[in-house]
Automatic annotation (TrEMBL), chain A:
<comment type="function">
    <text>Catalyzes the rate-limiting step of the oxidative pentose-phosphate pathway, which represents a route for the dissimilation of carbohydrates besides glycolysis. The main function of this enzyme is to provide reducing power (NADPH) and pentose phosphates for fatty acid and nucleic acid synthesis which are involved in membrane synthesis and cell division.</text>
</comment>
<dbReference type="InterPro" id="IPR036291">
    <property type="entry name" value="NAD(P)-bd_dom_sf"/>
</dbReference>
<dbReference type="GO" id="GO:0050661">
    <property type="term" value="F:NADP binding"/>
</dbReference>
<dbReference type="InterPro" id="IPR019796">
    <property type="entry name" value="G6P_DH_AS"/>
</dbReference>
<comment type="pathway">
    <text>Carbohydrate degradation; pentose phosphate pathway; D-ribulose 5-phosphate from D-glucose 6-phosphate (oxidative stage): step 1/3.</text>
</comment>
<dbReference type="GO" id="GO:0006006">
    <property type="term" value="P:glucose metabolic process"/>
</dbReference>
<dbReference type="InterPro" id="IPR001282">
    <property type="entry name" value="G6P_DH"/>
</dbReference>
<protein>
    <recommendedName>
        <fullName>Glucose-6-phosphate 1-dehydrogenase</fullName>
        <ecNumber>1.1.1.49</ecNumber>
    </recommendedName>
</protein>
<comment type="similarity">
    <text>Belongs to the glucose-6-phosphate dehydrogenase family.</text>
</comment>
Automatic annotation (TrEMBL), chain B:
<feature type="domain" description="Glucose-6-phosphate dehydrogenase C-terminal">
    <location>
        <begin position="285"/>
        <end position="579"/>
    </location>
</feature>
<dbReference type="InterPro" id="IPR022674">
    <property type="entry name" value="G6P_DH_NAD-bd"/>
</dbReference>
<dbReference type="InterPro" id="IPR036291">
    <property type="entry name" value="NAD(P)-bd_dom_sf"/>
</dbReference>
<dbReference type="Pfam" id="PF00479">
    <property type="entry name" value="G6PD_N"/>
</dbReference>
<dbReference type="InterPro" id="IPR019796">
    <property type="entry name" value="G6P_DH_AS"/>
</dbReference>
<keyword id="KW-0119">Carbohydrate metabolism</keyword>
<protein>
    <recommendedName>
        <fullName>Glucose-6-phosphate 1-dehydrogenase</fullName>
        <ecNumber>1.1.1.49</ecNumber>
    </recommendedName>
</protein>
<keyword id="KW-0313">Glucose metabolism</keyword>
<dbReference type="InterPro" id="IPR022675">
    <property type="entry name" value="G6P_DH_C"/>
</dbReference>
Length: 596, 587
C-alpha cells in the first residue's frame, strides 16, 4: 500500500520555479523523481517546505500592502462585480449545481494556475487523473493549465502525461483512460496579473462549457505574492456566469496575524468566504480523517477523551533531512510557521474539539474555532527552538543548516521547535498538549500520541517497580510512514511468573487494507469540487491560529533568541525533554521501548 | 485440557457402572481430538497447544462417596497450614532444611502420564521447584521405580525455546521419581508410603502435596488414608482434586463435608484448568492495570458479555462418563462460570487469593439462579458430509440410545448488582460443533447520537465495539473498532486492534497444569476454588438441572459439525443480543 504518496510536500506555494521542492524526500537524492510515477511505492512524507525554494516571494508586509493599496480606485467597480459574483456563486448555486440540475447540463472547469510548476506536474495533475480514473469527476469537465510559459495543448499534455500513473489495484484500461483524460486537458498562456489574459481564458472556457451551467475551480499553484493579482483577474474576468467559482490556495497564509489578516482582507475583496478553499494537506491525510471517525463512531474512546483520563497529548512531526540547498523560502518562515501553526495546530483542534452538531463543514469548523479560541497564546517559556548543526557519521558529513548557501550564515531561524499548549476549557483544563516538529532528525514520522493517566490504586503496582510512567496506556495514531493505530496496554507476559509488559493492540493499515491509500490532494480536490469545506480552513480559524503564535514569534525575533544546536540526524535538542519534564510528560517517541 | 478426573456423584447409579481398566482416566482423550482414531497421541509430545476439553470420554464413573465416609472418624491428622510456610518465602538457608514431596495418587493413569508428570518436569526444567524434592507415584498396579521412570520418560518433553541440556535434566528429574504400590483405601499402605517419604526427607522439614488423579468415588478414601497416615508432621500437607465436584448442590456439599473431615479448607486445592489459562490469567491484568478498560466495565457501556466454548468433535466412543454429567455440569457450571465471576467482580482489595475469591463469591451470590426459559439445550445427531458420516451422540455405544443428555447448551445469566443490572451474560458450550474455540466477547453499547449513523445504514449492531479475548486456539486479544476505509469516500468499517500472542510472544505458553501445580506448591490459592464459591456456583445451576431432568426436556438436535441448534439464536434475540462468533464479519 502505498502510503499517501503524495501529499507531502507543502510546496504548494512552490510554483514553477520551485522545481524540486515540494516533493518527497527521495527526490532530492534522485533529483529526478522517478518515484512519482510509481506512486504506489512512494512513501512520501510530509515535507516541510524547507526545500521549497520559493524564495522571497513572500507576502511580507510590503507585498501585501502594495497589492492591496493599488486596488484603490477600482475598488468600487470591483466591489460591484464581486457582489454580483458572490451572488451567483453562493450557496444557491451550489445547490443548483449539485442537486437540482441534471448532470448533463452542468460542467466543471478546473484551471491550474501555475501549470508549469512542479507542484502542478507532480501532484495536481496526477491527482486529477486519479479522480477521473476512479470516476469521481463529473461527466463534463475540462482542465486548463495556465502559466506564463508558452506552450501548446499538445506540449502540456505531453508534460502532464509523464507524471500520470494508475492505481495499482486496477490498472486494466489505464492507457485508454489516460488518453481520454489528456484529451480534456488544455493550456492557456498568460500573465498572472493580466485581466486581459484571463478574459481570453474565459472565452476558451465558455467554448468548452458549451452553454451548460458552468462551475469553475481555480487552483493557485503560485507564490503567495501573486495570489491577489491572480485572484483579482480570475474573479473579475474569468468567473462563471451561472455556476460557482471557487479558488484553492495553499499555505503560507501570511507570516503572522497582521499579514494573514491583510491577505484575507485582500482575498475577500474579490471572493466571498464560500469561495476560498485554504488547503492544509495534513487534513487530507487518511489517519487525520480517521481521527474523528475513531472518536465519534466508537463507544470506547469518547468516555476517555478528557482531562479525567488523558494526561497529555503529543503531536509529533519529524523529517530526517534538512533544507539541502533549498532553504531560501524556509529561512524566512521557520519551523513554527511552517509546521506547527498550521498542520499540528489543525490536528490539535480536530482532536480536542467538542462533538459537533453534525459532520457538516460549518459545524466542525465552529467547534475547531472554539478550541483555538479557548487556548492560551503560547508563551516564550513554553517553547524550545533548535537548529541543526553539521555532523559526521560513518565518514559522511552532514551539513549544518547555515551551511546551506541559500541561508544567511547568521540565521537564527529554528529548524526544530517544541511547545507546550493548553486549552482552558472544561474538558482539557491542565492537560498539556505538546508539539514537536523538526528537520534533520533521526527519523521521519508524523504521529499523534495520547498518554493516559495512571491507573488509580493500581493493584499491580508492585509488579512494575517504581517507574509508573512505563505503565500508562497510550494511543498512537501514526499518520506516516506506515499508517497505523495502536493502543499500548499492559499485559501479562505469558509464563509462570506474573510479569507485566506493554503490548500493542494494533491496526496496521498495510496489513489490513491492501488498497492504495489515495493521495491527500485527491481528497482535497474532490472536496473542493463538491463544495465540501470540512477540510479547508475558514478565515476565522486562521485568525485564531495566528493569534496563538504571533506573540511568541514576534518575541523570538525581537529578542533574537538563539536556537539550541543539535547534530544533523540526532533526536533533537535536549531542551525538548526539559520542556516536557516541566509538565511531567515524557515524549512517547523517544522512550526506551520506542514504538515500532 | 482438562484432564478430568471425574467425579463422582451420582451415588446410586454409580456403583453399578463398571470401570474399565482401573482408572485409566481418559485415555486418548487428553490428547488431540484429531487422533481418536489412532489412539496414539503424538501431539502430547510436542506440548504445543493443549486444548481445554470437555470431559468426554471419561471412563471414570461416579461412585458414591458415602461408603467411605461413614466409617471414618473425624480424625484430623493434619497440621493446619500456615501461610508462612510457602517454600517460596523461605530463605535459602531455610530451604536447605525443608523438602517437598509430591505424591501423584493414580500415577499409572493417563492424566498423570500425560499432564502431571510432564508439568512437573517442566517446572523442574525451568527451576521452579525447590532444591530438595521427591516425586512419588502411587497406584494399585505393581511397578518398580525403574518401570515408573520408564513410563514417565516417554511423555516428557522440553520447551521448544531452550532445549540445551534437556537430556541431562530429564535424567536428573527421573532420579527423583519413585513409586509405591498400594490400595487406595488402605491406611496401611499409606503408612508404608509415609515411611518411604520420611526416608527421602531425611529429617528435613517436610512439605507434602498429594495430587488426586483418581475417580471421585475414591477421593474420600484416599484423603482419609493420606491424612491419617501420610501427612507431614512438620510442614504443610495439601491435596489437589479435580472436577467433578459433585453433580448438584447436595452431592457437592456432601463431598465437601467429607473432605473437610480430614482436611481444612486451606489444604484443599480444587483445580479448574480454565483458570490456569494464560488469557484468563490476563483478564484481571487487562482490567486492573490499564486505565482504558475499567471506566468502560459496567452496564453504562457494556451491552452484553458472551462466554463461548466449542469443540469440533463428539464423545467418540467414550461417552460413558459424559452422559452422566452433560455439558452444563461439564463446562458451564465450572469453567464458564468461573470466568464470568472473574470478569464481573468488583476490584478486590488486593491480588491475594482470599480477596479475589471474596469478590468472586459476591458476584455468584448476586446472580439469579438460572431459569429453564433462559436455557437452550441441544444434542448432536448424525450427519453426512463429503461422503463421510459423522455419528450422532446416541450412536456412541457407551451412551444409552435414548439419552437426552445435552451436548450443547446456551444460557442467559444476570447479575443483580449495581454494576451489572440488566446486562445479559450469555454462555454457550457445545460438542461436535463446526470448530473449536474458547473465547470471551464483550459487546459494547451503541454510540449515543452517533454522528456517523448514516454511514452504516440501519444495521446498528454492526457498529458497536467489541472486545474479544480468545483463550484458544491461537491466544489473542482484539478490539473491534469502527474505522474509515481508506479512500476518497467516507465508508466505515470494523477493523481490529489486535494482539496476537503468537506474533508478540514467540515463547511457548506454559500448560495450565504447570501454573496450577506451581501455585499449589507455593500455597497461592487464587486460581483454586473455595468451598463457598463452589456452593454458590452449584446453587445457580442445581434448580435448573433438576428441572431439566425431572421434566425430561428433550434437547434440540443439531447435526454433527454444525453451528449448533438455532434455539441459541432465539435465546440471544430475546435479550437483544447477537452471538459475536456467528456474525458475518466474525474472524
Amino acid at each position: 500500500m502505498a502510503a499517501f504518496s503524495s501529499m507531502h510536500c507543502s510546496p504548494s506555494y512552490s510554483f514553477s520555479y520551485s522545481s524540486i521542492n515540494g516533493c518527497k524526500k527521495q527526490s532530492f537524492i534522485l533529483s529526478a523523481s522517478p518515484r512519482f510515477s510509481v506512486p504506489d511505492k512512494a512513501k512520501v512524507f510530509f515535507q516541510s517546505p524547507g526545500n521549497s525554494h520559493q524564495n522571497g516571494v513572500l507576502m511580507q508586509d510590503g507585498a501585501v500592502t502594495t497589492k492591496v493599496s493599488p486596488v484603490g480606485k477600482e475598488a468600487n467597480i470591483e466591489k460591484l462585480e464581486r457582489d454580483l459574483m458572490s451572488v451567483t456563486s453562493s450557496k444557491e448555486w451550489d445547490e443548483k449545481a449539485g442537486f437540482d440540475i441534471n448532470e448533463n447540463e452542468s460542467t466543471v472547469s478546473i484551471t491550474v494556475v501555475g501549470a508549469s510548476g512542479d507542484l502542478a506536474k507532480k501532484k495536481i495533475f496526477p491527482a486529477l487523473f486519479a479522480l477521473y480514473y476512479e470516476g469521481c469527476l463529473p461527466k463534463h469537465f475540462t482542465i486548463y493549465g495556465y502559466a506564463r510559459s508558452k506552450m501548446t495543448d499538445a506540449e502540456l499534455r505531453n508534460m502532464v502525461s509523464k507524471t500520470l500513473t494508475c492505481r495499482i489495484d486496477k490498472r486494466e484500461n489505464c492507457g485508454e483512460k489516460m488518453d481520454e483524460f489528456l484529451k480534456r486537458c488544455f493550456y492557456h498562456s498568460g500573465q498572472y496579473d493580466s485581466e486581459e489574459n484571463f478574459a481570453q481564458l474565459n472565452k476558451k472556457l465558455k467554448e468548452h462549457e458549451g452553454g451548460r451551467l458552468s462551475n469553475r475551480l481555480f487552483y493557485l499553484s503560485i507564490p503567495p505574492n501573486i495570489f491577489i493579482n491572480a485572484v483579482k483577474c480570475a474573479s473579475t474576468s474569468a468567473s462563471s456566469g451561472n455556476g460557482w467559482t471557487r479558488v484553492i490556495v495553499e499555505k503560507p497564509f501570511g507570516r503572522d496575524s497582521e499579514s494573514s489578516a491583510a491577505l484575507t482582507k485582500a482575498l475577500k475583496q474579490y471572493l466571498s468566504e464560500d469561495q476560498i478553499f485554504r488547503i492544509d494537506h495534513y487534513l487530507g491525510k487518511e489517519l487525520v480523517e480517521n481521527l474523528s471517525v475513531l472518536r465519534f463512531s466508537n463507544l470506547i474512546f469518547e468516555p476517555l477523551w478528557s482531562r479525567q483520563y488523558i494526561r497529555n497529548v503529543q503531536l509529533i512531526f519529524s523529517e530526517d533531512f534538512g533544507t539541502e540547498g533549498r532553504g531560501g523560502y524556509f529561512d524566512h518562515y521557520g519551523i513554527i510557521r511552517d509546521i506547527m501553526q498550521n498542520h499540528l495546530l489543525q490536528i490539535l483542534a480536530l482532536f480536542a474539539m467538542e462533538t459537533p452538531v453534525s459532520l457538516d463543514a460549518e459545524d466542525i469548523r465552529n467547534e475547531k474555532v472554539k478550541v483555538l479560541r479557548s487556548m492560551r497564546p503560547l508563551r516564550l517559556e513554553d517553547v524550545v527552538i533548535g537548529q541543526y548543526k553539521s555532523h559526521s557519521k560513518g565518514g559522511v558529513t552532514y551539513p549544518a543548516y547555515t551551511d546551506d548557501n541559500t541561508v544567511p550564515k547568521d540565521s537564527l531561524t529554528p529548524t526544530f521547535a517544541a511547545a507546550a499548549l493548553f486549552i482552558d476549557n472544561a474538558r482539557w483544563d491542565g492537560v498539556p498538549f505538546l508539539m514537536k516538529a523538526g528537520k534533520a532528525l533521526h527519523n521521519k514520522r508524523a504521529e499523534i500520541r495520547v498518554q493516559f493517566r495512571h491507573v488509580p490504586g493500581n493493584l499491580y503496582n508492585r509488579k512494575f517497580g517504581t517507574d509508573l510512567d512505563q505503565t500508562t496506556n497510550e494511543l498512537v495514531i501514526r499518520v506516516q510512514p506506515d499508517e497505523a493505530i495502536y493502543l499500548k496496554i499492559n499485559n501479562k507476559v505469558p509464563g509462570l511468573g506474573m510479569r507485566l509488559d506493554r503490548s500493542n493492540l494494533n491496526l496496521h493499515y498495510a496489513a489490513r487494507y491492501s488498497k492504495e491509500i489515495p493521495d491527500a490532494y485527491e481528497r482535497l480536490l474532490l472536496d473542493a469540487i463538491e463544495g465540501e469545506r470540512r477540510l479547508f480552513i475558514r478565515s476565522d480559524e486562521l485568525d485564531a491560529a495566528w493569534s496563538l503564535f504571533t506573540p511568541v514569534l514576534a518575541e523570538l525575533e525581537e529578542k533574537k533568541i538563539i536556537p539550541e544546536y543539535y547534530p544533523y540526524g540526532s533526536r533533537g535538542p535536549v531542551g525538548a525533554h526539559y520542556l516536557a519534564a516541566r509538565y511531567n510528560v515524557r515524549w512517547g517517541d523517544l522512550g526506551v521501548e520506542q514504538s515500532v | 485440557m482438562a484432564a478430568p478426573i471425574t467425579p463422582c456423584s451420582s451415588p446410586s447409579s454409580s456403583s453399578s457402572l463398571a470401570f474399565p481398566s482401573e482408572f485409566n482416566l481418559c485415555k486418548p482423550r487428553n490428547c488431540c481430538f484429531s487422533n481418536w482414531v489412532s489412539h496414539v497421541c503424538p501431539r502430547i509430545r510436542t506440548r504445543t497447544h493443549f486444548q481445554i476439553k470437555t470431559s468426554n470420554g471419561h471412563p471414570l464413573n461416579a461412585v458414591s462417596m458415602q461408603g467411605g465416609m461413614d466409617g471414618s472418624p473425624l480424625a484430623k491428622g493434619i497440621n493446619p497450614e500456615k501461610e508462612e510456610d510457602f517454600f517460596i518465602d523461605i530463605s535459602d538457608g531455610e530451604e536447605a532444611h525443608s523438602t517437598l514431596s509430591i505424591t501423584v495418587v493414580g500415577a499409572s493413569g493417563d492424566l498423570a502420564k500425560k499432564k502431571i508428570f510432564p508439568a512437573l518436569f517442566a517446572l523442574y526444567y525451568e527451576d521452579w521447584l525447590p532444591e530438595n524434592f521427591v516425586i512419588f507415584g502411587y497406584a494399585r498396579t505393581k511397578l518398580t521405580d525403574e518401570e515408573l521412570r520408564n513410563m514417565i520418560s516417554r511423555t516428557l518433553t522440553c520447551r521448544i525455546d531452550k532445549r540445551a541440556n534437556c537430556e541431562d535434566k530429564m535424567e536428573q528429574f527421573l532420579k527423583r521419581c519413585f513409586y509405591h504400590s498400594g490400595e487406595y483405601s488402605s491406611e496401611e499402605h499409606f503408612a508404608e508410603l509415609d515411611n518411604k517419604l520420611k526416608e527421602k526427607e531425611a529429617g528435613k522439614r517436610s512439605n507434602r502435596l498429594f495430587y488426586l488423579s483418581i475417580p471421585p468415588n475414591i477421593f474420600v478414601d484416599v484423603v482419609r488414608c493420606a491424612s491419617r497416615k501420610a501427612s507431614s508432621a512438620k510442614g504443610w500437607t495439601r491435596v489437589i482434586v479435580e472436577k467433578p465436584f459433585g453433580r448438584d448442590s447436595e452431592s457437592s456439599a456432601e463431598l465437601t463435608r467429607c473432605l473437610k473431615k480430614y482436611l481444612t479448607e486451606e489444604q484443599i486445592f480444587r483445580i479448574d484448568h480454565y483458570l490456569g489459562k494464560e488469557l484468563v490469567e490476563n483478564l484481571s491484568v487487562l482490567r486492573f492495570s490499564n486505565l482504558v478498560f475499567e471506566p468502560l466495565w459496567s452496564r453504562n457501556y457494556i451491552r452484553n458479555v458472551q462466554f463461548i466454548f466449542s469443540e469440533d468433535f463428539g464423545t467418540e466412543g467414550r461417552g460413558g462418563y459424559f452422559d452422566n454429567y452433560g455439558i452444563i455440569r461439564d463446562i458451564m457450571q465450572n469453567h464458564l462460570l468461573q470466568i464470568l465471576a472473574l470478569f464481573a467482580m468488583e476490584t478486590p482489595v488486593s491480588l491475594d487469593a482470599e480477596d479475589i475469591r471474596n469478590e468472586k463469591v459476591k458476584v455468584l451470590r448476586s446472580m439469579k439462579p438460572l431459569e429453564l426459559e433462559d436455557v437452550i439445550i441441544g444434542q448432536y445427531k448424525g450427519h453426512n458430509k463429503g461422503g463421510r458420516t459423522y455419528p450422532g451422540y446416541t450412536d456412541d455405544s457407551t451412551v444409552p440410545s435414548n439419552s437426552i443428555t445435552p451436548t450443547f447448551a446456551a444460557a442467559a445469566l444476570f447479575i443483580n448488582n449495581a454494576r451489572w443490572d440488566g446486562v445479559p451474560f450469555l454462555m454457550k458450550a457445545g460438542k461436535a460443533l463446526h470448530r473449536k474455540r474458547a473465547e470471551i466477547r464483550v459487546q459494547f453499547r451503541h454510540v449515543p447520537g452517533n454522528l456517523y449513523k448514516r454511514n452504516f445504514g440501519t444495521d446498528l449492531d454492526k457498529a458497536t465495539n467489541e472486545l474479544v479475548l480468545r483463550v484458544q486456539p491461537d491466544e489473542a486479544i482484539y478490539l473491534k473498532i469502527n474505522n474509515k476505509v481508506p479512500g476518497l469516500g467516507m465508508r466505515l468499517d470494523r477493523s481490529d486492534l489486535n494482539l496476537l500472542y503468537r506474533a508478540r510472544y514467540p515463547r511457548e505458553i506454559p500448560d495450565a497444569y504447570e501454573r496450577l501445580l506451581l501455585d499449589a506448591i507455593a500455597g497461592e490459592r487464587r486460581l483454586f476454588i473455595r468451598s463457598d464459591e463452589l456452593d454458590a456456583a452449584w446453587s445457580l445451576f442445581t434448580p435448573l438441572l433438576k428441572e431439566l431432568e425431572a421434566k425430561k426436556i428433550s434437547p434440540e438436535l443439531y447435526p454433527y459439525g454444525s453451528r449448533g441448534p438455532v434455539g441459541a439464536h432465539y435465546l440471544a434475540a430475546k435479550y437483544n443480543v447477537r452471538w459475536g462468533d456467528l456474525g458475518g464479519d466474525d474472524d
